[in-house]
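To: structure desk
From: M.T.
Subject: fold request, one chain
Message: Could you run this one when you get a chance? Sequence is below, nothing fancy, just the single chain.
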Amino acid sequence: MATISAVSAVASAALSIRGQQMQRKTQAEAQDRATIAASQQHAARVSALRARQNQEAIVVSRQVQDQSRRAIEAGARGRTAAGESGAVGTNVDALLADFNRKFADYRFTAHQQQNMANHNRELAMKDAGLQFQQNWIDINKPLPEVDYAGAAIGAGQGLMSAQRGYVRDLRIQQGQQGIG
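Reply: Done. Structure tokens follow.
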């Protein structure tokens, strides 16, 4: 009976250690998968922000080009109309200066809006980076160490209990032999 108790205590300690090792390995694999998924999600988010930034820059550039073409065409029409009507000098120059001022205002406003949008996007990317860092920290908590000492103490307690049972059984046997 004592041998069974001793073997049971040692087996229990060994199974406890093996179970902790398997749990640690499983948790590490889950953390690795979650970290890869979070990295891919972060990369996709930043890539989408950059793509949108590039698309908006193209749109603004085209709008400025279109407005520039319209300003040139309007200036040409204004000079032509002024020439046909016989207007010269200050009035024509004022009209052309007005076209140029309006175009410069438009271009400045478009670039300012683009700069503000870029700034907001940079803040969004920094936020995405901070969120990724926090996710990484949350995912990669320290893994629990295998409790070898606890398993050894448990095995020692089991062996001590088995030894006490053996001594008790031995005394009972000796007492029964002395009576008989």
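Reply (cont.): The chain is about 90% helix and 0% strand. Let me know if you need anything else for the meeting.
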